[in-house]
C-alpha cells in the first residue's frame, strides 16, 4: 500500500513518488533511487548520486537550437539522392522521429518512480533534449521537402510494415 512517504515496505512493489511530502527524509545516507522517502526538493548541494552533477552540467552544455543550423546545402542535396538513398533517409528519419517522441512521452513516466531527486533532474533534461531532437527533425523536413512529403515521412512508421513492427516492439 502506498503511504505518504512513498515507501513500499516489504511488499516488493515499486511505488510512485509523492508530489508533496512534508515528512520526506533529507539524509543522503537513506536516500534511495526507488521507493525512498523523498521531499522532492532539488538540492544541488546535497546529492547522494554524485555522478549527477557532472552529467547535469554536460547535458546543459549540449543545448542547441535546431534553426541555428544552416540546412541550405541539405535542400540542394536531398533531391540529388538516389531513390534508394532517399527512401533510406526518409525511413530512418521517420523511425527517429517516432523514437524521440516516445522517449519524450515516456521519460516522465519513469520519473514518477524515481525518489532520488537529483536523478529526476537528469530525466527532466533528457526529456527536454528529446523534444529538441523532435524539433530538429521537423526543421529538417520543413527545410528539404514539401508539406505533403513531410507528413508522409512523419507517419511512415504507421504504414511501413518494418517500421511498424520495430515501433510496436519498443
From TrEMBL:
Return the protein name: ribonucleoside-diphosphate reductase
> Which Enzyme Commission numbers does its entry carry?
1.17.4.1
- According to its UniProt entry, this protein's organism is Candidatus Avitreponema avistercoris
Gene3D superfamilies referenced in this protein's UniProt entry, alphabetically: Ribonucleotide Reductase, subunit A
Cofactor(s), names only, from the UniProt record: Fe cation
State any single GO MF term: ribonucleoside-diphosphate reductase activity, thioredoxin disulfide as acceptor
Q: Which InterPro entries match?
A: Ferritin-like_SF, RNR-like, RNR_small, RNR_small_AS, RNR_small_fam
Class of enzymatic activity (EC top level): oxidoreductase
| Protein family according to the UniProt entry | Belongs to the ribonucleoside diphosphate reductase small chain family.
GO BP annotations listed: deoxyribonucleotide biosynthetic process
Q: Name one Pfam family in it.
A: Ribonuc_red_sm
Amino acid at each position: 500500500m502506498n503511504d505518504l512517504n512513498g515507501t513500499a515496505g516489504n511488499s516488493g512493489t515499486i511505488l510512485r513518488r509523492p508530489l508533496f511530502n512534508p515528512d520526506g527524509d533529507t539524509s543522503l545516507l537513506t536516500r534511495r533511487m526507488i521507493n525512498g522517502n523523498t521531499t522532492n526538493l532539488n538540492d544541488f548541494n546535497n546529492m547522494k548520486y554524485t555522478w549527477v552533477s557532472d552529467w547535469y552540467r554536460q547535458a546543459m552544455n549540449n543545448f542547441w537550437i535546431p534553426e541555428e543550423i544552416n540546412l541550405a546545402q541539405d535542400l540542394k542535396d536531398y533531391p540529388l539522392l538516389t531513390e534508394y538513398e532517399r527512401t533510406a533517409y526518409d525511413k530512418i528519419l521517420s523511425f527517429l522521429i517516432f523514437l524521440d517522441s516516445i522517449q519524450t512521452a515516456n521519460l516522465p513516466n519513469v520519473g514518477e518512480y524515481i525518489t532520488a531527486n537529483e536523478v529526476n533532474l537528469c530525466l527532466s533534461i533528457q526529456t527536454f533534449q528529446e523534444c529538441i531532437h523532435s524539433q530538429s527533425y521537423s526543421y529538417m523536413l520543413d527545410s528539404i521537402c514539401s508539406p505533403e512529403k513531410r507528413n508522409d515521412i512523419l507517419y511512415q512508421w504507421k504504414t511501413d510494415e518494418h517500421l511498424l513492427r520495430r515501433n510496436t516492439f519498443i
